[in-house]
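Retro notes
What went well: the complex prediction finally ran end to end.
Inputs used:
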Amino acid sequence: MTAGRFALRVIGFALFVAIVVYLPFRISDFRASEFALIGIYFIAILGLNVLTGYTGVISLGHGAFMALGAYTTAILVADHGMRDLWTIPLAGLLAAAAGAAFGLPALRLSGPYLALATFGIAVATPIVIKKFDGLTGGSGGINLFEAEGITGLPEFIVTLPGGKVLSFNDWLYYLTWTFALALFAIAWAIHHSRFGRSLRAIRDNEIAASASGIWLASHKTLAFSISAFYAGVAGSLLAISAFSVQPGAFPVDRSIALLVGLAVGGLGSLAPLAAGAAFLVFLPQWAQDISKAPGVPAVIYGAVLIALMILLPLGVGGLLRRIMGPLTSRLYPRS
Amino acid sequence: MRVLGVIALALAVSTGAASARPTADPGLNSSEIVIGGTVPLSGIAASYASVGRGAEAYFKYVNARGGVNGRKITYKYVDDQYNPAQTVQAVRQLVQQERVFAIFNSLGTEHNLSVRSFLNATKVPQLFVGSGATTFGRDYRRYPYTIGFLPSYIGEGKVYARHIVKTKPNAKIAVLVQNDDYGKDLLAGFKSGLGAKRKNLVAEQSYDALSTDVSSQIARLRSSRATVLLLITTPPFAIRGLVAANRLGWRPQVYVNQVGSATNIMRIVAATANPRIIEGAITLISVKDPLMPRFRSDKGMALYRTIMRQQLPRGDVNDGFHVYSMAVAYTFVEALKKAGRNPTRASLVRAVANLNLRSNPFLLPGVVVKTSSTDHFPLDQGQLQRWSKNQWNPLGKVVSAR
């Protein structure tokens, strides 16, 4: 990467951070909670991107790793009195371990077979959670609202020197986006590392990659594990922001939604994935605003998705590359 | 603009404090009261959408007659896709952005549990929860802003148990139960109602709401040689369970819980399987069923049909959820009338806990909606029904389902 290109990236990232920090000053209290949710999806999609976007391995089961992260946080906070913030990395690590454990045997499968195996864990997740109701609270789940370790409650309110009032929705917003930006930076580092290039080599041609000395099994397992880490952190943040977890919060649809967000954002992109996350939060609402008649919101959702995929086959990221490509290529030579 | 935003924020976060003052509650002005709730409009449980639409139709009917104390009722129901995580987000939107006065008629056990603490902490009424889970009526000291509506599942389970003990004291009993809080609650009530006859319960099989087939469970229940089968199931699983039992040639005395026993469901069973499988089946109901011939000339059902025709012409008149939701909406309107000319959230909650309504047109004759400061179960009566000649027929008097 040339110095000019790197500088451009740093400026871009700084701009992204500035927008994230400033946004709550412009939007309503409730919107902040929606953008917090976008941050959570953004994290999960960034993780899925490491697996699907770079390595070319499709997972239909990332909702399961989110569930694992969410339950790790809920159980540690509700039953062991831990502070919610400390449970976030733990939730990520546990999900990463589970991802590695699942990845080792499952990655012997390839293509659609692996996708089906991951689909299997997504289907089983809510039922397994209900099975262990002593630990997980069964179908009613775990309520965190009255737990000691929860930092931001609806009473949370801070007045900044400028007169801006920070509500608990703003707190959730900054919490999730702090993690989102940190994990974004890590994803960016992975993208530009030797490891990231190896993953993309695996995606493009496994045989060629392996002939060049890339050990497929370890790379794929590590990619699976990293991606599960992201999902675990996202799940943990979801539990904190909802003050509760239930098995019903992790249906198969959730795993599929992440893949939809990734496709809309653009496989292999980074910052545009935030658009995919926003799509997941806002499109169902817009569809409902248009009509609540039976079946209509689902049809609108489907139609918009189809139209979007036809118009933007490479997602928002692909569109941005097409627009920006001619501009940036004048700034520095493509190598 | 910025200043306005800050003021709005300050208001939003101080809703708790505001409810202590008599006139400052959100969602209310001299011409309108805005309430909200969550209902699945899409996803696996989309058939429950009628619970939102029927209530909306009733409010429109009331509004067309001038509303309550000159205020029109606006009911904003949002889709939560039957996913509790979506319920949390949707309820926050209703409370913090739409600024609703109260949450009303939200559907689902886990879904209401996921927001109960939040609503009580912010002192927003959570009224007539669409779930019979006992906790919503029982734990009012801890959650004073929450109240249920349906007879508690525990109470319903006891009614079936008492009937079996009385009519077939030595029958072996098998149960098919949904493996969530609803199923567990009803089964617990059933077991406690069996009392000394508990040993007659010889087989129990559970299924997951996300599964699609219960025939292996039914086969196992049948192998227990039970002669009574209790279905603690939602409509699709009541149908599948009975069809599977029929396929095996099993002819137990069937009991179906209220959630899964609507006439249109039973008729699907009669049409797909042998009608004899459900001949003599027993259920408990509290709400009038639109397909019951004995209500053909009933005044309440005439009102129901009029409202459906005028306000929801494209809705299915035979869908019992529409009647149920109008029964809930009727109760809300009556409570609102009692909450004073200028109701507050607190006065509405007091009114809701002080009801004695004998004439809800959508409930079975003789069923009274009654609450007090120590009784947060509005509907705790029902009447057993026996299935014969392709319809439900009353069996005995209105009984208590506590």
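What we learned: Chain B touches chain A through 46 residues (CB under 8 Å).
What to try next: split runs per interface for comparison.
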